[in-house]
Amino acid sequence: MTAVDPVPGEAGSIADPRSYASGAFDDHRPPDAALLGDCVHCGFCLPTCPTYVLWGEEMDSPRGRLYLMKEGLDGAPLDDAMVEHWDNCLGCMSCVTACPSGVRYDTLIEQTRAQVERHHERPMREKALRGLVFALFPHPGRLRLLRGPIRALQRTGLDRALRRRVTKPGGLLERMAPHLAAMERLTPPLQPAERMPARIPAQGTRRATVAMITGCVQDAFFPEVNAATARVLAAEGCEVVVPAHQGCCGALSVHNGREEEAQRYARAMIDTFEKADAAHGLDGVDYVVINAAGCGSTLKDYTRLLADDPAYASRAAAFQGKVRDIAEVLDELGPAAERHPLPLTVAYHDACHLAHAQGVRAQPRRLLAGIPGLEVREIADPEICCGSAGVYSILHPEAAAELGRRKAAAIVDTGAEVLVTANPGCLLQVASSIPASADLGAHAMGMAHLVEVLDASIRGLAPDRLRSARSTDTS
């Protein structure tokens, strides 16, 4: 499909906020014509869009995708080409930050993807892949079951042998099943899991009571990040409540158009935290804390997600009002625990759903700046996504791999010893992208979540602990 350049303000252009006749979409939350009308086709979004940067294709830019939405509202059928351009979007929301007109592309792409999932028949192979992904990743219990076999492979070294012979870039598995090869490459080295107690008391004077969300991928593959989160909160005077039997927050489902599924997860999450215990249900906590950027953006959107549910609309608003990223809570409270020197150079990577979707940029940098001896280096082209984007790296492995290589090169160019970010998907993507890039070789670089760096400073750990954490050195 080729781009048509509508004139802002003319009838029939994206900027025309009239009501459109239904075409590709049904009447349940179609792309909002009034929101589409906010786009003036200026093009400020183009250099910030990862897929436009990769391919230079107008319809793989935000304004091109908005134009396709308008065509659908005007009566165009939901065809394969149209769906492909929407599927290609990473949902990074960099365009939302760049847009001078305040276009809510995040809302529009979620509305559109929900329509696609209801009305577009995908090929059998693609349907099977998506079925596998959503039967696994939003289920922390199922992910935890994988830890045993994965750790056994890693302890014996069979995972490295398999990677060298079968799953390496260009290897047998990548040629035969690139999506499965992408899943294997993203698997991190697993550490022994620390069991989270139901309550962690505050150290010193209690300054706040927080309820902690443990997540799906975070809980199964990065339990040490959750443990560090609880330790840092307790050290800063927070009593930490960890509700049992937590499920998925619905983020992956929301971002991929599985609206009803996402709503079920959201209701269950609200129920779990309301029933945490009599003394510390939602009414008894100051914050609900999340340490995964992609999850946080959805948790902060529960009011809209459940707006049409009379039994949950007000409860969703109350829950959402308490949700904070861990960096927001720590920055707002200010330091109470002593920071010990940590002589390291780190590169801080803005996770898309933290920076663009939640607007949390300054807080992590202020927290890092408060650590004596730590030098923070900025990464070139920070607005371009690393290619993780939830399950995008599995569903679109080639595009994700190219974005990963670009981001890895920019990170290595900083000369930093450790990459620091605030999202598990970003850690997985960059940790796999550096060894996969031939020009970067076996560059030794540690990978750490923001709270792990704070935890190391508060506990006075040696910097080598972070330099070797999830190291990208495969030599």
Automatic annotation (TrEMBL):
Cofactor(s) it depends on: [4Fe-4S] cluster
Domain 4Fe-4S ferredoxin-type, residue spans: 29-59, 79-111
Cofactor binding annotation: Binds 2 [4Fe-4S] clusters.
Record keywords, A-Z: 4Fe-4S, Electron transport, Iron, Iron-sulfur, Metal-binding, Repeat, Transport
EC number: 1.1.99.14
Family matches, as SUPFAM superfamilies: 4Fe-4S ferredoxins
Superkingdom as given in the UniProt entry: Bacteria
Job description of the protein: Component of a complex that catalyzes the oxidation of glycolate to glyoxylate.
Protein name: Glycolate oxidase iron-sulfur subunit
